[in-house]
Amino acid sequence: MERIYQEYKDKGFIILAINTTYQDKLAEVNTFIEEYHLSFPILLDQEGRIAKDYQLTALPSSYFVDSKGIIQEVVIGGPMAEALIRTRVEKLFKEGP
Amino acid sequence: MLPYINLFGLALPVPAITMLIGIWTGITLAERNARNHRLNPADLYNLFIYALIGGIIGGRLAYVLQFPSAFLENPISLISPNPGLFDLVGGILTGLISAEFYRQRKKMPFWTTLDALTPALAVVQIALPLAHLASGDAYGAPTSLPWGINLWGETRHPTQIYEALAAGVILWQMWPGRGKGQSKPGVVFLQFISYSAMARLFLEAFRGDSLVTVFNLRVVQLIALSILALSMWGLYFLNKDKSAPSKNPVQ
């Protein structure tokens, strides 16, 4: 994920990772970031509001959002194949703003 | 919506499991039905497996051809079990070609083979909307009816349940042994296709995710209408000469 983020971020690709802090330990987030050398923002859902708004049913869940802010696809479960992320990102860029 | 169930620490994908159960039940039923059509059960089983394997490999290759650079960067993704990396049309086409290749090699009669496979297809037709219900796909239009289900933030028509019920009625009609000795080879299969097209034509109107075209008709309804017309024509053609003896003595 980090590799794809580095590759596409200059074209406008953004990753917003959200940690379900209301059920996880905050210290584990830092360990995870350091272990995988993640540079994209990791937001904390401390009260479970994001999980409720996005109707989270399983972890991990990935939401592919277009430039208009519309969710184009939800992929539930993981790990996601790298090609899956690449093809979805390329498709969103092809469709344009 | 129940995309995953957690069992002993494992997240199991419910839609995939539903489809596997449907396919397995379908194959079992097809094997049982083979003798009704004087076909070798093992041949019918193998034909189903050929179609399945051909469809999976072809579906993946067709997808790779659309996004070759994504797979060149990460070739291991070629064997990823993720269903999001499949091309449905390519998979169906290669599945059909594989099945036809096997049928010709085994010299299985075309219409009789399709008739024998019909109950299996009817079972898969039940499994598919149930898998959609689990994944939240193929959802219905918003409704205020009391049997609406809450999905994607709104109360919607439970189109997946409508489709599963319709498929259940079609399966009951197509159950092995029903209508024995009444029809010529091909009639059972074409009846299944026409019933399915009729169900799709009607139920698609309740969907909330399909493209609407001219006269408030949806793309899928236009396709269903064409398939219905073709299957009705086929049934008329097969039944035209009623005096001719049936080539399928058992059915």
Q: How far apart are the first and last residues' alpha carbons of chain B, in Å?
A: 41 Å
What CATH architecture of chain A would you give? 3-Layer(aba) Sandwich
Proportion of residues in β-strands of chain B: 5-15%
Q: What is the domain tally of chain A?
A: 1
Kindly report the CATH topology of chain A.
Glutaredoxin
Largest contact between chains: A-B, 17 and 25 residues
Strand/helix succession of chain B: EEHHHHHEEHHH
H/E element order of chain A: HEHEHEEH
Distance between the termini of chain A: 23 Å
Strand arrangement in the largest pleated sheet of chain A: 1-2
CATH fourth-tier homologous superfamily of chain A: Glutaredoxin
Residue share in helix of chain A? 25-40%
What is the oligomeric state here?
A: heterodimer
- Radius of gyration of chain B over alpha carbons? 20 Å
State the main characteristics.
heterodimer, A: 97 residues, alpha+beta, Glutaredoxin, two-stranded parallel sheet, two-stranded antiparallel ribbon, 4 helices, globular, B: 251 residues, mainly alpha, 60% helix, 6% strand
Structure description:
The complex is a heterodimer of chains A (97) and B (251). Chain A has 97 residues and is an alpha+beta fold. Chain A has a single domain, classed as Glutaredoxin (3-Layer(aba) Sandwich). Chain A has a two-stranded parallel ribbon. Chain A has a two-stranded antiparallel sheet with strand order 3-4. In chain A, helix 2 links the parallel strand 1 and strand 2. Chain A is globular. The model of chain A has no long low-confidence stretch (mean pLDDT 87). With 251 residues, chain B is mainly alpha-helical. Chain B has a domain of 167 residues. Chain B has 8 helices and 4 strands. The longest helix of chain B is centred in the N-terminal third of the chain and has 26 residues. The chains are: A alpha+beta (97), B mainly alpha (251). At the A-B interface, strand 4 and helix 4 of A face helix 3 of B.
